[in-house]
Amino acid sequence: MGMFSESVEVVCTPAGMPLKLAWAGRHYTVCAEPVRWYERRQWWVEEARAPLGSGSGLVDHEIWRVQVRPADSPDAESLTLDLTRHVRSGRWRLLRIHDALLPLRMPE
After folding, report:
1. Which of 4, 15, 82, 89 could form a disulfide with 95 if both were Cys (CB 3.0 to 4.6 A apart)?
2. 107 in a structural domain
3. What is the pTM of this model?
4. Phi and psi of 58, rounded to 5°?
């Protein structure tokens, strides 16, 4: 599993669920229902101080685990990614690539 933080463009359903994304010059379509949860973050590392009234978005951040396929190759194997959305800016970041969740291929 690779863990990092890279900007991605995400198109969501009206309910806010990821539907499509663009990353590293390629377009992907979400091919399974995403899973969402919240994680605590070290806000004091990213923010100089806590703005008044920003508690829930400041302390927790939203994580989405999505399975995607290249938009131009709908029969390709899926890739599992973890994405996060910054509450105030609405910007999305790619956090993890789960290569361990990809099917293993036997050597030929």
Report:
1. 82
2. no
3. 0.75
4. -85, -40
Residue 99: is it exposed, middle or buried by C-beta count within 10 angstroms (0-12/13-18/19+)?
exposed
3-state secondary structure of 12: strand
CA distances from 75 to 10, 29, 82 (A): 21, 11, 21
Helix and strand numbers, DSSP H then E, in the chain: 2, 7
Tell me how many domains the chain contains.
1
Instruction: List beta partners, residue 80.
Output: 67
Domain ranges, residue 14 = 2-101
Rounded to whole angstroms, the Cα distance separating 89 from 78 reads: 29
Residue with structure tokens 């198109």? 11
Does the CA dihedral 41-44-46-47 come out positive or negative?
Answer: positive
What tokens were used for 80? 């599992």
Per-residue pLDDT of 52-103, as tens digits, reads: 555 555 557 789 999 999 999 988 889 999 999 887 778 899 999 986 544 5
